[in-house]
């Protein structure tokens, strides 16, 4: 573009972000690409953040893995942060197994009852073949 092609009232220097005469707009195109990329990055970060409790529970082989997954999904779909906090807390702490001692007590009391059959014993190994002298 030579100075003869410019309007006489136009300045000699036009910034690059000003729309060109052919309708191309560099700044608009750049901002569209930048915005779409930023939205995708924020989405990836959001989903990664919501999967932290499940990753923690999976790495520790947590017994309440399904509960952690359900709480994380509820937090994702309802946008209630309390579910996500609960999922982090459940994934972070191992709850003691209160049922095992109670089960052992129940088995011991059941074995003391009159006429109760003892728990099945291990099967005897097959008898050895007689040895010849």
Structure notes:
The protein is mostly helical and 133 residues long. Among the domains are: 19-50; 53-112, no CATH class. 55% of the residues lie in helices and 0% in strands. The chain has five helices and no strands. Helix 2 runs antiparallel to helix 3, helix 2 (52-59) packs parallel to helix 4 and helix 3 (65-78) packs antiparallel against helix 4 (81-92). The longest helix is centred in the N-terminal third of the chain and has 25 residues, at 26-50. It is elongated.
Run of helices and strands = HHHHH
Terminal Cα span:
116 Å
Kindly provide the radius of gyration, computed on alpha-carbon positions and rounded to a whole number of angstroms.
36 Å
The helix-and-strand class reads mainly alpha
- Give me the number of helical elements: 5
Q: pLDDT under 50 segments (min length 5)? A: none
Number of strands: 0
Transmembrane segments: 26-49, 70-93
Biased composition (Pro residues): 116-133
Keywords: Membrane, Transmembrane, Transmembrane helix
Region (Disordered): 113-133
How do the helices and strands line up, and which of them pair or pack?
Layout: H1 26-50, H2 52-59, H3 65-78, H4 81-92, H5 99-112
Helix pairs in contact: 2-3, 2-4, 3-4
Provide a short characterization of the protein structure:
This protein has 133 residues and is an all-alpha fold. It has helices at residues 26-50, 52-59, 65-78, 81-92, 99-112.
């Amino acid at each position: 573009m030579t100075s003869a092609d410019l309007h006489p009232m136009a300045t000699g220097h036009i910034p690059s972000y000003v729309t060109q005469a052919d309708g191309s707009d560099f700044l608009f195109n750049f901002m569209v690409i930048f915005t779409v990329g930023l939205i995708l990055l924020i989405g990836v970060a959001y989903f990664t953040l919501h999967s932290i409790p499940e990753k923690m529970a999976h790495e520790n082989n947590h017994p309440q893995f399904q509960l952690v997954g359900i709480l994380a999904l509820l937090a994702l779909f309802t946008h209630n942060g309390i579910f996500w906090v609960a999922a982090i807390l459940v994934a972070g702490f191992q709850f003691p197994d209160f049922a095992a001692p109670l089960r052992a007590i129940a088995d011991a009391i059941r074995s003391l009852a009159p006429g109760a059959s003892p728990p099945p014993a291990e099967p005897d190994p097959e008898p050895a073949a007689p040895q010849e002298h």
